[in-house]
TrEMBL record:
Membrane topology: Peripheral membrane protein
Keyword Transmembrane: no
Entry's Gene Ontology molecular function annotations: ATP binding; ATP hydrolysis activity
Main location: membrane
Stretches assigned to the ABC transporter domain: 8-244
Keywords carried by this UniProt record: ATP-binding, Cell membrane, Ion transport, Iron, Iron transport, Membrane, Nucleotide-binding, Transport
PROSITE patterns in UniProt: ABC_TRANSPORTER_1, ABC_TRANSPORTER_2
Protein name: ATP-binding protein of ferrichrome ABC transporter
Amino acid sequence: MGINMKGLSTKGLSLAYDGVSIIRDLNLAVPPGKISALVGANGCGKSTLLRGLARLLKPYGGAIYLDGQSIFNLSTKQVAQQLGILPQNPVAPEGLTVKDLVGQGRYPYQNWLQQWSEQDEIIVQQALEITDLLALANRALDTLSGGQRQRAWIAMALAQDTDILLLDEPTTFLDLAHQIEVLDLLYELNQHQERTIVMVLHDLNQACRYADYLVAVKQGRIFTAGEPQEVMTEEMVKEVFDLDCRIVSDPVVGTPMCVPIGRKGKVNILSN
């Protein structure tokens, strides 16, 4: 596989936790300027892959490239100025306010000569406004609801002002209305600012609706990847999730929609 000279890619990537192999010999080229969704069963390696792409986990084999360079040849500050990351279940110090958390997204641009600037303040305010958190800016993070906290973490990732955003289950803790709100926000960032977004999603139908590119992961390897219309098939869902389903057209946007069958569905099928 050729190295993607623009954006994020891997070649022969292998990752492990505590000596246990999770990702094996994986080749991936993230489409620049697009939204990509990683989907797969629990424990298949989606979050591990995202951590590897963010340089939070060192490979035991293969390589990760950022704009054609090995990501491990770049400084931490260089990576942080190009990759924004929202990990799964992030933790903040007790008593930290929403605005303080979002302000941490500007740390990659600080040094002993360049302290907090007017530009930093503008970007933090924009991140708070985009995520509808201006009214909660001075509230302590640990006093917020789960959904509000999640939006604060997303705002911090936005404040990094990077071309690439990596998000591990960004809709965690959110009710359905706020899930759509967050996904709409990410879609608008991609459409209007051409940010490359890679996110782990559990909801296949949301992944099909919002992603340009789907990566189905099974047991640490890419089972299939491509546009949702190509990837979302009954055979893929059965192989990757061990679930019988029917794939129909989403009545709102026309993207593939997975309708699980389950035991009750099988009874209805047999009785008809």
